[in-house]
Specification:
Layout: H1 5-12, H2 40-50, H3 63-79, E1 82-83, E2 90-101, E3 106-109, E4 115-117, E5 123-126, E6 134-144, E7 150-151, E8 156-157, E9 168-172, H4 198-208, E10 212-217, H5 219-222, H6 226-233, E11 237-240, E12 252-257, H7 258-267, H8 272-279, E13 287-314, E14 319-329, E15 334-335, E16 345-346, H9 349-369, E17 374-381, H10 389-396, E18 405-410, E19 422-425, H11 433-442, E20 447-450, H12 464-468, E21 474-479, H13 487-501, H14 517-534, H15 549-556
Parallel strand pairs: 6-9, 9-10, 10-12, 14-17, 14-18, 18-21, 19-20
Antiparallel strand pairs: 1-13, 2-11, 2-13, 3-4, 3-13, 5-12, 6-13, 7-8, 13-17, 15-16, 19-21
Helix pairs in contact: 1-3, 2-9, 3-9, 9-14, 11-14
Length: 559
């Protein structure tokens, strides 16, 4: 464990935290109470600090984690919150850091011509196996498995009649119907389902027994460019630790550039575009690449460590055993693929120093506003960037019973594009929490809209999903794209610019010229929704027929 007690105590002593002092006069909220508005000064100071180079990108298991844990626990303590986990601010999350080295090219032989993909610019590879210092895939038969989906409830199985043990599977990203214009189709039309997420692709390949699983990168269905894949996959990877060392996972998982996949299929006498079209149709059958064998090898530096979720509690006054949850992930990528100017720290200012700072600002505002009927939990989780690891661990090992957790709000990458006429609700219409948001929006003269790019699968890309899977209604919304200045065109352009130039890269840095007015309005929504939920006796649920409704009903049975 890298974060020793001595180191943590030393960092706790750092005079770095800036929270609005008790006498700070906030701009009055619409309720007329200064205490009812989260402090923008607190937000600005904490985002700037959390995303500074001193925090080295906040990767789990690094000095950046130590400083982040110290800052958050110190902040919550100064505000008068209680340590949430039996007297501790922290919940241990066992992880293994795996750093690939000596990575060979991914080579394909046996076709009409040899194809080779270089590590970094043309392919990336890793392993989830936490006790395997050397991985070698040698002469593994290659099979194209379309979208790599096994969905019995939809009558869809890309692995039907196929034995992939010992083989390398080539998989398409997203769902078969992501190019549809509407939301009707076997996989919800244009809206991505969990079957479209890269995490699912690897999970299913492992269940099927594949030795290696390689996803074909394509910018539109992936929703990000190769630069994001490269920066996210070429550094140290965080993997959940467990008793079997993830021995049931594929030996190698990774991505390959589309042009290399085209060359691979051509070498086997196949056409990738034709295969992609076939894979979209029900009844698709996997296609072996006759005679083609895959090979690669790499070594791993393995380091077990105990990362941490931060858990702070603001007790309720009349129903303290019922909980409202605020969540945000504190982690980012740490050191990553260097920019042309040599900068190799992925600071994660927007993603997600903003959400982390919001936890503190909201806790501060709630302390000033006075206790609510229900308890409020402020949860900063680790490992989101590696696959929602910290929130998944909390979901499996909850500090507070999930059946007694009323609902919550997740905050991830607040928008710095300026004030908007709307907010985009990821998963709009799934739960009763929409009504709470709509009431808060009405006080601002704003509206909730559905996500404009449902094919990007944002619902499955942040920590609310880990709690939803256990039945807890969660609200996840983002600053809207219909900007006050410039409208939807300006908002979409700002989002695309961030994704292309800063997301998961060294240039996601604090900018003193940011327009914080949109964040200020969104912060007020988080506060109003959470506080309303904490002061009601209602138990919001998922709407009838939703995928999480039965789970919630079961967890609430008898209460």
């Amino acid at each position: 464990m890298r974060c020793s007690l001595a180191a943590l105590v030393a960092v706790l002593a750092l005079p770095s935290l800036s929270i609005s002092p008790p006498g700070h006069a906030a701009t009055p909220a619409k309720t007329g109470k200064a205490a009812a508005q989260p402090s923008l000064d607190t937000m600005k100071r904490l985002v700037k600090e959390l995303s500074s180079d001193a925090f080295e990108g906040r990767a789990p298991g690094t000095v950046g984690e130590e400083k982040t844990l110290a800052l958050l626990s110190d902040a919550f303590g100064k505000l008068g919150l209680q340590p949430g986990n039996k007297g501790s601010w922290f919940q241990d999350v066992p992880l293994v850091e795996i750093s690939a080295k000596n990575v060979s090219a991914l080579s394909f032989t046996g076709g009409n011509s040899a194809v080779s993909a270089a590590y970094g610019p043309e392919m990336v590879v890793a392993t989830y196996r936490t006790t395997q210092p050397h991985v070698e895939v040698k002469d593994s038969p290659v099979v194209f498995v379309g979208y790599g989906i096994n969905a019995p409830e939809k009558g869809w199985n890309d692995y039907a009649g196929l034995d992939v043990k010992g083989k390398t599977v080539i998989i398409l990203v997203n769902d078969p119907d992501y190019e549809m214009t509407g939301l009707d189709g076997p996989f919800n039309g244009r809206a991505m389902t969990y079957y479209g997420r890269w995490t699912y692709k690897f999970e299913e390949a492992a269940r099927q027994g594949a030795t290696a699983a390689i996803i074909v990168h394509d910018t539109v269905p992936a929703a990000y460019g190769w630069n994001v894949v490269q920066s996210s996959w070429t550094g140290a990877q965080q993997v959940a630790d467990n008793a079997n060392g993830n021995a049931d996972q594929s030996a190698a998982i990774g991505w390959i550039q589309k042009d290399k996949a085209v060359a691979l299929m051509t070498s086997a006498g196949l056409d990738l575009d034709t295969l992609m079209a076939q894979a979209k149709k029900p009844g698709f059958k996997a296609v072996p690449l006759k005679g083609v064998k895959a090979s690669l090898s790499f070594d791993n530096d393995l380091r077990k460590h105990m990362s941490k979720n931060v858990v702070a509690l603001l007790p309720g006054k009349t129903r303290p055993d019922e909980y409202v949850l605020y969540s945000a992930h504190w982690d980012h990528l740490g050191r990553c693929q260097a920019a042309p100017d040599g900068d190799d720290i992925c600071n994660g200012a927007v993603d997600n120093a903003t959400g982390t700072a919001a936890l503190v600002a909201l806790a501060e505002a709630n302390v000033k506003a006075g206790p609510t009927d229900r308890s409020q939990v402020f949860l900063a989780v680790t490992g989101e960037e590696s696959g929602l690891l910290g929130s998944a661990y909390y979901g499996d090992h909850p500090v507070f019973p999930l059946g007694k957790t009323v609902g919550g709000v997740n905050m991830d990458a607040l928008s710095m594009a300026g004030p908007a006429k709307n907010v985009v609700v990821i998963g709009k219409g799934k739960s009763d929490l929409d009504a709470y948001l709509n009431r808060a929006l009405a006080t601002q003269g704003r509206v909730a809209t559905v996500e404009p790019t449902p094919e990007k699968g944002f619902y499955y890309r942040s920590d609310h999903f880990s709690f939803a899977k256990h039945g807890v209604p969660m609200l996840y919304f983002e600053g809207g794209e219909d900007l006050v200045k410039g409208g939807t065109a300006a908002g979409m352009a700002a989002a695309e610019d961030y994704t292309e130039h800063r997301y998961h890269g060294p240039k996601d840095e604090y900018d003193p010229h940011w327009d914080w007015s949109g964040v200020e309005a969104d912060l007020q929504l988080y506060f109003d929704v959470g506080r309303a939920l904490a002061n009601t006796a209602d138990w919001p649920n998922w709407v009838a027929g939703d995928e999480f409704r039965a789970i919630r009903d079961k967890s609430r049975a008898g209460q």
